[in-house]
Request: fold
Amino acid sequence: MTAVGVQPSAVGRGDVVLRADGLSKRFGGLLAVQNVSFSQYDGEILAVIGPNGAGKTTLLNLLSGVYRPSSGRLHLLGRDVTQEPMEARCHAGLGRAFQIVRPFPEMTVHENVTVGALFGTRGTTLGQARERAYDLLERTGLAAHADKEAHELTLLQDKRLEVARALATQPRVLLLDEVMAGLRPGEAQEAVGLVRSVRDSGVSVLFIEHIMPVVRDLADRVVVMDQGQVLAEGTYHEVTANPQVVAAYLGTEEGLHA
Ligand SMILES: Nc1ncnc2c1ncn2[C@@H]1O[C@H](COP(=O)(O)OP(=O)(O)OP(=O)(O)O)[C@@H](O)[C@H]1O
Reply:
């Protein structure tokens, strides 16, 4: 595992798992996402960053199928999923974990993950779902808490549960929506380790994040958005040295690293 604070090694450019071509989303008179194109490669951890209101969440909602784009196309594992609803994208290999964790509070941790396994993949029996859930609790460091009710978990454990539930649908690409939010620095580093282990298990990860040290430690490549558009793309060091990116973040280096 890469030591924290060391630039992750670039991944080899394998197959494209996710490809956005000219995605746009209009809300009335506002173009929240404007002609966004990028590719994500197999095994890659890709960060999407940008100042408040840049369009990151709207982009994630376009990728996961919460919204249909006003124009543009999206390919998942080579298949055009532009018009497909969320469940179809989930079955096709796209998983999503949210910033606000919403487990079923009265169900146990194991039951919560079992539900994800049952409904996220077709043709899974209850027995298979329960077994997969135990395996995922091991992988996400929650095995000791399997029988606790979900409301008893700490925030970091909640985040682990959210990732376990998303993985229960057996995604090839996992979308993470600011999952580090609210964590203390030490906890965020633990979560960084968890995301790396997810990637090492063969799942490509696309994440939105405001915490720049997390982006630096985790991302193989970074897409920077501003005012709905892609402003820059490259390694963490490339994009943070880009004057246009610095200017977009309040015009100061401090703004970027705040
Ligand atoms: N459902 C909606 N209806 C109308 N406008 C919206 C809607 N969702 C987002 N917007 C607008 O689209 C723009 C982009 O918002 P979005 O939430 O995608 O940005 P963001 O980069 O995720 O911001 P933040 O970092 O603050 O979460 C903003 O101007 C926002 O007000």
